[in-house]
Design goal:
Helices cover 36% and strands 18% of the residues. By secondary structure, the protein is α/β, with parallel strands linked by helices. The structure holds uridine-diphosphate-N-acetylglucosamine.
Length: 386
């Protein structure tokens, strides 16, 4: 099979930590569509088994089976298979189970599991260091035990802090400004040390800009718990009538219309970027690769709002309020390295993002809870005490 997702490179069995979350579920789908076997380990702190059930449905896998303990799976007679295991990245036992699932053979890990809310990271720094940093230490130890040396890590443009550089290349100084950002920087540092400690490591650090939107089917999308911190999910909830109005954080930034400018990329473009990174790591000699994943285009808050309104035929209430502490005026990627190294660039427009994001939100106003009661995590993990 010629695989356009990984650039024609070999199809393998891969483990996605945090694969039931927003980016992980979309990446699972993209990898399954190209014939990979996907094993997901997730603790469901910010992810949903229902997301993966829908991924199985969208990719035409057989029925979703749940066993007596903590295991779901679906497969097709030819091609891909999807397995979901409840587990915590800090637990060696859970990691060993994930690596051994389906008789082992995991050749690469995509590490999405982690906490990502800036405000929460300032209130609970230890939890962030524990999950994001200790979790990655445990994962690397497990990879060592299971002979796996290929890793794609979810890093973030948050590492660049409040820089004035536009667009931002990977060589820009790293100057995170909150515990969430410090943990991402620490993991990047740790992975760099690991890569130089022994031959054979193939590691990609993918620095995401602002991933938004949803799969065009409207079946899977972003499902934040509680009040969304980020602009796009908040906008979607205003459109759905779940929130009264959008608060625009600052109208006096030094930008075209005074509102903050960001680099929004469609989550399916991001998912495909992971497939490309995996293909590149597998095809080339061992290396450590650092790439920005963004569109290279900046859009202001008001531009995003107007595009959402025009694309979806809606008018949304908003008010300009104070700036949010820690924000910067502009954050836009220089994505040229991703194109040069792995032939990846975003293909979907801001209008595509708005159309697909709204299709998801409209069909699932309460996120995956709209589908009815969820399997209780304690039942899923009844056999092991993580
Ligand atoms: C934020 C985080 C960043 C994290 C990223 C992805 C902060 C300071 N930064 O990035 O570390 O990596 O999310 O999780 O929290 N806005 C509004 N109204 C809102 C929400 C946002 O006007 O209700 C504005 C912001 O000021 C900004 C833009 O919308 O100009 C995008 O904000 P957001 O979606 O939160 O992303 P970032 O701030 O880029």
């Amino acid at each position: 099979m010629i695989d356009s997702l990984t650039g024609g490179h070999s199809l393998t069995k891969v483990l996605l930590t945090g694969g039931a979350g927003f980016i992980g579920s979309h990446t699972s789908l993209a990898l399954l569509e190209s014939g990979h076997q996907v094993v997901v380990m997730d603790d469901f702190s910010n992810g949903s088994a229902e997301a993966l059930r829908r991924v199985a449905e969208l990719t035409g896998l057989g029925p979703w089976r749940q066993d007596a303990t903590d295991h779901w799976s679906a497969s097709a007679p030819v091609g891909g298979s999807l397995t979901l295991i409840r587990g915590d990245v800090r637990s060696q036992q859970d990691l060993d189970r994930a690596f051994q699932d389906g008789n082992g053979g995991i050749s690469a890990v995509l590490h999405f599991a982690g906490l990502k809310a800036v405000g929460e990271s300032m209130a609970e720094p230890l939890r962030y260091w524990d999950v994001n940093v200790t979790g990655t230490v445990r994962l690397l130890e497990a990879m060592g035990r299971h002979g796996c040396q290929t890793l794609v890590f979810s890093s973030s443009a948050t590492l660049y802090g409040t820089t004035d550089t536009v667009p931002i290349p990977e060589t820009a100084p790293l100057q995170p400004i909150n515990p969430y950002g410090y943990t991402k920087a620490a993991v990047e540092r740790m992975l760099t040390d690991v890569a130089s400690s022994a031959p054979g490591w193939r590691i990609a650090l993918l620095r995401y800009f602002n991933p938004v939107g949803a799969h065009p089917s409207g079946r899977i999308g972003e499902d934040p718990s509680g009040r969304p911190n980020n602009l796009f999910p908040f906008l979607c909830q205003v459109a759905a009538g779940c929130r009264q109005q959008l608060e625009v954080f600052g109208g006096d930034w030094p930008t075209g219309d005074g509102t903050g400018v960001r680099d929004y990329l469609h989550v399916m473009d991001l998912a495909e970027g992971h497939g490309r990174a995996l293909g590149l790591l597998q095809a080339e000699p061992p290396q450590l690769l650092t790439l920005n994943l963004g569109s290279g285009q900046g859009h202001s808050v008001l531009e995003l709002l107007r595009t959402f309104e025009t694309t979806n035929g809606l008018t949304l209430p908003y008010a300009v309020v104070e700036r949010r502490p820690g924000d910067s005026a502009v954050s836009v990627a220089d994505p040229s390295q991703a194109e040069r190294r792995m032939g990846w660039r975003t293909r979907r427009s801001l209008a595509d993002i708005c159309r697909d994001g709204w299709a998801w939100q409209r069909a699932n106003p309460q996120g995956y809870r709209s589908a009815g009661p969820q399997p209780a995590p304690e039942l899923i993990g009844a056999q092991h005490g993580s």
